[in-house]
Amino acid sequence: MSRTATAEAAARAEASAGAAARTGRSAERPLAELGAAAARQAARRRPIRDLKLPEGRKIAVNFTLDFDAMLLRRLLEEPWGQKAKGEFGGRVGIWRILDMFDAEDVKVTLFTPGRICELYPDALHRAVAAGHELADHMWQHEVPEDPATEAAHLSRAVAALEAIAGSKITGTRSSHSPALLRENGIVYNSFTSATYRPFVEYDAQGANPILQLPFHYALDDAMYFSFGWLDTPNAAQRIMDVDEVFEIWWAAFEQQYRTGGYVNFLLHPFVSGHAMRVDMLQRLIQRMKTLPGVWFPTCATLADHILTTHSLDAAEA
Ligand SMILES: [Zn+2]
User: How far is the CA of 227 from the centre of ligand 1 (A)?
Assistant: First the structure.
């Protein structure tokens, strides 16, 4: 550690000791608060203990595309270089990825903001024609605080997606309120890393159960291949070798395969749509297929399968 760093660490320790002395707070209260929060979350999140995959299947693998084309960042008027990355996802990346999934006959779920239906309708029609699923990812990639605006955003997003899908939208990746999601016919969400198997999540009042299909950041392409990720400093940038990521993802898959489980890969077309990354994904899928019993459903197909034996309404009662 350099002298400056040592001095900085000492100054930080002194400042935090000073703050504790001023507030008179010991560790007891924060720990009690953490304990209470953990108990509340445990009560809201109930595992599905007897979850069974269809006959002959050892693992369910969801490939999920967050087809947001960096919408929020483009709305935030970030520099043109950032906006161009999102545009690449909408004009090029999504087409490449879908071509690859079609070549492998793997159906995927596209979590799509409503506004993308206006920006890239051709890509969405192409996805639907190939049998992929469209699911909600907020109207413009944000959940408004005002409840009436939030409700308007969700119903507009669902209507826009249903118009293209030609069928009901049943899933979301968002922090919309569970009651609002259920009112709009949404039965599953894929918006947590709280655990690694599908589970039922209740709202704070113990109502409005929804099936959660958890993802993990270790299986999120943006964690490996991101430059300029949401205001991160230069030291946090990473553009990893695709072969290294292949090995990490294969190990994650294999661990769940051995234990009979679930994985949910979170891919962004503006990130994974680059040629060498699409190739890496294709190699990964081809290697998964060498093992027996690997199931590649869309999130909606998996949710349907789970909910035939674990009805949410029964869960509420
Ligand atoms: Zn997103």
Answer: 16
